[in-house]
Design brief:
Blueprint (H helix, E strand, L loop, with lengths): L1 H21 L1 H8 L10 H15 L4 H28 L6 H4 L6 H18 L7 H32 L13 H18 L5 H5 L1 H32 L11 H20 L6 H36 L1
Helix pairs in contact: 1-2, 3-4, 3-6, 4-6, 6-7, 6-8, 7-8, 8-10, 8-11, 10-11, 11-12
């Protein structure tokens, strides 16, 4: 999985850079679009999550430090840049056309920077700045939590009071749960390394309670998301064919498994361990299914093109 991520990340960076250079007008149009512009929040999120992998799986702290610096820079430029552009845009869409689960990736990006910051400090990087950087990680975690509540209020309003078609409920709506899952992981990571910061130690009970709060929100989302999936595919008969958007549903499943496991480490809740394992298996199954769908779509593409001709 790690080396596949290396391959995918290199490919995405190359293709994105090429697109910016060859089609700058299309790139700028995407940034100014309320639906597509938020997709750029995945860039700092990817840098942060990959940096986590470098630390945890490969112990490559030096390389991770580069991704840490890149994630911080990308987070500041992309988050504030995109939000500023969309704020000053004179013509704006309504909630139905402009609001989607992609907005919540801003929370994922922020939490990924918070987690990577703590992991880097725990690895001994920037030891002379441990106190202010741990405080910054705490602030990012709290700020991202508030951002989730703001955005989720609007998304919940759209779900319950505005018309929703089956086409609107694409797999990435699972990010509703995945966002608070990574927020849970960020809080647990702060607590696991709380000895690095007297401030975190002092407010540890508050951090633990808020971490459980995030986990509870994510857990309560799961039955609703399953019900909506049944409505979309079984009742409305939406074809269950491969769509690149299915990858957006894999991340929340894996993140819920990870955050639940770490929650058992900071609380006396070992009875939740089987739940973590269950979602690990579910996430792997979803990943394999999406990957096989991708391969099948590529292999069958020439046949479809020939038949249409």
């Amino acid at each position: 999985m790690f080396w596949l991520n290396v391959l995918f990340l290199a490919g995405l960076v190359t293709l994105t850079g090429t697109r910016i250079l060859r089609y700058p007008a299309a790139f700028a149009a995407d940034v100014r679009n309320h639906s597509r512009g938020v997709g750029f929040f995945t860039v700092p999120a990817a840098a942060g999550v990959f940096g986590d992998q470098l630390v945890l799986q490969m112990q490559a702290v030096g390389v991770a430090a580069l991704f840490w610096a890149g994630a911080i820079m990308l987070w500041f430029v992309v988050i504030y840049g995109v939000l500023a552009v969309l704020t000053i845009r004179p013509d704006k869409p309504g909630l139905v056309d402009g609001l989607n689960g992609g907005w919540l990736v801003s929370v994922v990006a922020t939490q990924s920077v918070s987690i990577l910051t703590v992991l880097m400090l725990a690895s001994g990087v920037c030891s002379n700045l441990t106190q202010p950087l741990m405080f910054a990680a705490l602030v990012l975690w709290l700020g991202a939590g508030v951002l989730y509540l703001w955005l989720m209020t609007l998304i919940f309003y759209r779900y319950t009071f505005l018309r929703m078609s089956p086409a609107d409920l694409t797999p990435p709506y699972w990010i509703n749960m995945g966002t608070v899952a990574i927020s849970t992981l960020a809080g647990a990571t702060l607590l696991e390394h709380s000895t690095l910061s007297p401030i975190v130690v002092e407010i540890a009970p508050f951090v633990k309670g808020l971490t459980l709060f995030f986990w509870a929100i994510g857990t309560l989302w799961i039955p609703m998301l399953l019900i909506l999936g049944v409505w979309r595919y079984l009742i409305c008969a939406v074809p269950f064919t491969y769509d690149p958007l299915y990858w957006g549903g894999v991340f929340p499943l894996g993140m819920y498994s990870v955050c639940t496991y770490h929650l058992t480490q900071i609380m006396a809740a070992s009875f939740l361990t089987p739940l973590s394992y269950l979602f690990m298996v579910t996430a792997v199954t979803a990943w394999v299914t999406a990957f096989l769908g991708l391969v099948d779509s590529q292999l069958s593409h020439p046949a479809r093109a020939q038949s249409s001709t």
